[in-house]
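Input for the complex:
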Amino acid sequence: MDLFEKTIGTEHIFEGQIIKVRKDTVELPNGGTSTREIVEHPGGVAVVALDEEDNVYVVRQYRHPFEAIIMEIPAGKLDHHKEDPFGCCVRELKEETGLSANKFDYLGAFMLSPGFCREYIHIYLARELTAGDACLDPDEFLEVEKIPLSRLTDMIMNNEIEDAKTVMGILKTNELLRREQLK
Amino acid sequence: MDLFEKTIGTEHIFEGQIIKVRKDTVELPNGGTSTREIVEHPGGVAVVALDEEDNVYVVRQYRHPFEAIIMEIPAGKLDHHKEDPFGCCVRELKEETGLSANKFDYLGAFMLSPGFCREYIHIYLARELTAGDACLDPDEFLEVEKIPLSRLTDMIMNNEIEDAKTVMGILKTNELLRREQLK
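Predicted:
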């Protein structure tokens, strides 16, 4: 079966500082037409920073869409679509927690809402950490905390952690550590 | 530290069929102001349908934002903000795969992009499956496939699966099965 859709028209709706919104008209596999509302976003990075005692650094910050303070692994937006994700990861980890890391593993790139949003997030595991001073942007407000990896995993299984990048980062880290131990 | 932001203005940008976009002006914890671009979305559900031989049902479909065919667990949008997620899960599983299930576990609700998007996805694990006829919407085109859970897990660890709800659903299912076996 041919599943592809062909774009036959584009209406630009909004160009913001972070997102762009457009509405495409597409030709469906059966020859009919439909519209697709698309959000463009530069994408971002997130990082599981794991210390020698198996603690993970998390940040708490206010997230306006949910009007709530949410616990997440450190993360940030790419400055633009072509920024190197690894460089962004090193920068965001330092800005938000003050940490540098000597060892990184790539945990993958993830589409968060592929139905309407062209946003990718790249997640890294950072180990062999060195503490330093955080250097937040002047309009960034957050609190840093260290939580044992096993406790974070229990919180995920108890549905106490709802942030997708944090769930993916922690569960992929657990699976990666299991596989490293089997080697 | 007080992390909250107070909304002092709202500009409505776009009201589409799926998403709404607005721009809020907020007062920051330090007294300054900033703007927040917010996408509203009704939210959705996704389901890990696991058969007696530990195979998982996945669907392949074209996703316009990435102009690519993507493999995902079955999923769908809530009809509106107040639709019951579990009812939506049962309906979407039947529509996309023809399956009914006798046993469901709730794997949680997840914020996909809490920085700018008010979208929640609810994920369920469905077991004790019964086959039946799929009944796709007339403008829905997808292919269904069964893949062993262990193979999907390997694909996730090899960064071959990029869809966030699929990664979260499969890794939480693995952890839930491990914990069930320890009981």
